[in-house]
Structure formats: C-alpha cells, structure tokens
Amino acid sequence: KIKREQVKALKEHTQIVMWDVLSGDFDQKRDPEKCAATVIKHASPGSIIVFHDSEKARENVLGSLPKVLKHFANLFLQLIHETTFIIFRPIITYLYKEEGGVIFNI
Q1: Which of 18, 25, 37, 64 shows the smallest number of beta carbons within 10 Å?
Q2: Could you tell me which of 45, 26, 23, 47 has the C-alpha nearest to residue 36?
Q3: Contact 25, 35 (CB under 8 A)
Q4: What would the pLDDT profile of 33-79 be if each residue is shown by its tens digit?
Q5: Cα(48)–Cα(27) distance, rounded to whole angstroms?
Q6: 56 closest CA partner among 37, 77, 35
Q7: Over 60: is that where the pLDDT of 29 sits?
Q8: In terms of DSSP bridges, do strands 49-50 and 21-22 run parallel, antiparallel, or are they unpaired?
C-alpha cells in the first residue's frame, strides 16, 4: 500500500496511475471462471486490470486470462504485438503460443 508521503514525493515528477479492476486471482478459494467473470463484469474502456505473476495465482491467471482476452477480442478491441507486454511477458508469451499468435490490448 502506498503512503501519503510517497504519493507526494512521486507526484512531483511522476504521473501515478492506479488499477481499477482486481481479478481476485490470488484467492485460492476462487476458481478461474469466477476470476474471469469478475474482470468481464467490472472492466470498462480504459480500465487497468490486475493479474498477479506469482505461483499462488498461476492456476487462476492461466485459467481466466484466455477467457478474458477472448471476451474483449469479441468486443473488437485493438490488436497489439507480443513485445508490448514487457512486464507480463511470461504469461503473455504462454498465451501468444497457445492462442495462435494473437494478443489483445485490454
């Protein structure tokens, strides 16, 4: 969690951008279907969606992210190239291979 002092210091030279949709992938009581449903229900144009890159979240991320990407692809969102996703490269590389080389900007 970010502290007020940190926000103040960062605001001087950085634009702070926060997420607005939490997939819930870290919760091992949830299944991938529930994580995908949460994202699809709450995401809107411009949303920043959180999926975690951790062993704890792996099953839910890999099970829900393809469903989320397909959902938004069906809504005609913009196609982008794999290398744009530097932070999430391990997950995106997996999806890139599994989904025939098509990645979507959500």
Answers
A1: 18
A2: 23
A3: yes
A4: 999 999 999 998 788 899 998 889 999 999 998 899 888 877 654 44
A5: 19
A6: 35
A7: yes
A8: parallel
SS3 80: strand
Burial label, 64 (beta-carbon count in 10 A; 0-12, 13-18, 19+)? buried
Q: How far is CA 62 from the centre of its chain?
A: 11
Write down the pTM of the prediction: 0.63
Contacts with 52 (C-beta within 8 Å, 6 or more apart), sequence order:
23, 25, 26, 61
For residue range 84-105, list pLDDT tens digits in order.
444 444 454 445 444 444 444 4
User: By C-alpha distance, which of 45, 34, 44 is closest to 67?
Assistant: 34
Token pair for 47: 């949303």
